[in-house]
Design goal:
The chain contains one helix and twelve strands. The chain is mostly beta strands. Strand 5 and strand 6 form a beta hairpin. The two termini are 23 Å apart.
């Protein structure tokens, strides 16, 4: 394990793309599949620009047996960290909230469509059906409605099973 007081963040967290900035209203925004083969935890981070009221994002977390999505099914989660504001900037850094819901595989970000927002969802390998070889995970955001709403997502993979200065890829 890296010395937490004397290491670079890149030694502890492997950042992988889910999907690059896109207009989320045009189609479902399915992220790449990441593997928990070498990691115990993943923090899913979603950034979005302000859109039009009523076009609230619906965020889903899925699991599968491979990067093709074999046997895809939902991963239940109950906690979502949200930072939102009309403009996330120095004069308006946003309001941080922790949203809890009954465990479900999706979350509707009600009231955030017209705001800039950052969402974080933490997933543990133990949340997946690893007994049946479900070790891949994906974030997906349904088309957000009829108006432009830019967004992107990334994965922060951490608690590597064999830490090293250059973390192993979680994309295979």
């Amino acid at each position: 394990m890296a010395d937490l007081n004397n290491c670079q963040i890149g030694e502890l967290i492997n950042v992988e793309p889910a999907f690059v900035p896109v207009d989320m209203h045009t189609a479902t925004n399915a992220g790449l599949w990441v593997s928990f083969k070498d990691y115990h935890r993943c923090n899913v981070v979603i950034f979005k620009a302000a859109g039009t009221s009523g076009d609230d994002p619906v965020i889903s977390i899925n699991q599968a047996q491979d990067t093709s999505g074999t046997g895809s099914k939902g991963v239940n989660f109950s906690t979502i960290r949200v930072k939102s504001a009309a403009a996330l900037n120095q004069s308006g850094p946003g309001i941080d909230t922790i949203v809890t819901q009954t465990a479900a595989a999706s979350y509707t970000a009600t009231g955030t469509a017209a705001l800039q927002a950052i969402f974080q969802i933490s997933v543990s390998a133990s949340d997946l059906d690893v007994e049946n070889d479900f070790i891949f995970m994906q974030v997906s955001i349904a088309a957000t409605g009829t108006h432009t709403q830019l967004g992107c997502a990334l994965y922060q993979m951490y608690e590597c099973t064999h830490p090293q200065p250059v973390p192993v890829s979680a994309l295979s």
